């Protein structure tokens, strides 16, 4: 799957030695506790709370506009603590989502306007459709498709989901291109979403 070119305004992005492209308009708190393992894209107005606990992503992850990555909190009898948030390779997170999961596996698609509750576990190759709310401490099985509020399983992803997500996230990165003219930058509303990349594969 080859995507159309997605143009970002180069002056507001930083590209690291490992190929991560991070928007300066996003807030990465506790940067020493945030590990982006290469060729990640962090778009505009995201909030990454590494000041609370460690946050680690794999390679080729896309974190869309206005997404919040927030380590999960667990309350104990007398106090509480934040726990690390781990995200696997080839994960796409849609715009305006709030992620408080404990673990997100590889090749996972999370749509727009989703909420992933505290200490939830999303297994490999699962799909969270737009607007879904996953309750705290839930476990989403591998290859499951979840939708609704609260989220429930409505189907299964195709066996080719791993290949589809690897191809999609790599294509997204290849086509995410810098421009110096702000008017040529692709708006958030018109940026492609992978929400239906599997629909023709089932």
UniProtKB/TrEMBL annotation:
The keyword Phosphoprotein does not apply. It is found in: Cytoplasm, Cytoskeleton. One of its GO terms (cellular component) is dynactin complex. Its main location: cytoplasm. It holds the Pfam family DCTN5. It comes from the Eukaryota. Keywords: Cytoplasm, Cytoskeleton. InterPro entries: DCTN5 (IPR047125), Trimer_LpxA-like_sf (IPR011004). Belongs to the dynactin subunits 5/6 family. Dynactin subunit 5 subfamily. This is Dynactin subunit 5. It comes from Notodromas monacha.
